[in-house]
Amino acid sequence: MPTSLHGRAPVNSRKQAISQHVAPQTVLVVDDDAEMRAVFSEYIRLQGFHVLEAKDGLEALLQVKRERPRAVILDLAMPRLGGIDALKRIVKFDPTIAVVVVTGETDTDLHRQASLLGVRAVLAKPVGLPDLLSALTGSNTPRPGAAPMTERDPNTAPVSAAREASQGRVLVVDDDLAMREMLNEFATLKGYTARSASSAPEDSARRRRSTPSPMTRSRRSRTSRTASVPS
Fold first, then answer.
1. Which end of the chain is more exposed for a tag (fewer CB within 10 A), N or C?
2. What is the dotted CATH code of the domain comprising 23-137?
3. How far apart are CA 105 and CA 102, in angstroms?
4. pLDDT tens-place string over residues 28-71
5. Percent of the chain, pLDDT > 70?
6. 3-class secondary structure, 157
7. Residue 150: which pLDDT band, with cuts at 50, 70 and 90?
8. Exposure of 217 by Cβ count < 10 A (0-12 exposed, 13-18 middle, 19+ buried)?
9. What residue ranges of the chain are covered by domains with CATH 3.40.50.2300?
């Protein structure tokens, strides 16, 4: 680095160094499940990372070669190019990329293959979002620039019902317990008061008792699944 006559780095060089230091690192989220991908992506983005997405292994490889992410969150069971094959190519292309596998696969042989390829962690779905962050960074401490996550002080008086309602309440409706818990946790992290229901009748019963503002609902068929998450 060039220095001034007084032995100090020029102002522009110092500013550039500072800018590089605080620039968000890029994380690629790879999952063929659009809901899961959206939840992971938004959570990681809230921690101060720049997030890219891919819906299969082939698209993940294109993103890795084009964008050079510092870390990848990778599913194993995906179309076009599976997670293990994609992982082999990622490691060959750049072994310094940190990879965290998050999968619903119960095949221990696949888990072993991923571990032998040097992944940072193999996590089973449903995964706790703080556990995902810990595996990704090696720490539960949010990065600089992360959105503040406020927690209620247990020594303070409870928040009134009116104030709680003004902050927004979310009702998560999904017949999949794992997905329901993950969306519930995500809504809580976004600052909402979250409740959950497993079916439409239970949803209706809850709405008769209280009327939440936004509502996260997931409808599932044999071939598709859609959901909306409040921003």
1. C
2. 3.40.50.2300
3. 9
4. 999 999 999 999 999 999 999 999 999 999 999 999 999 999 99
5. 59
6. coil
7. very low
8. middle
9. 23-137
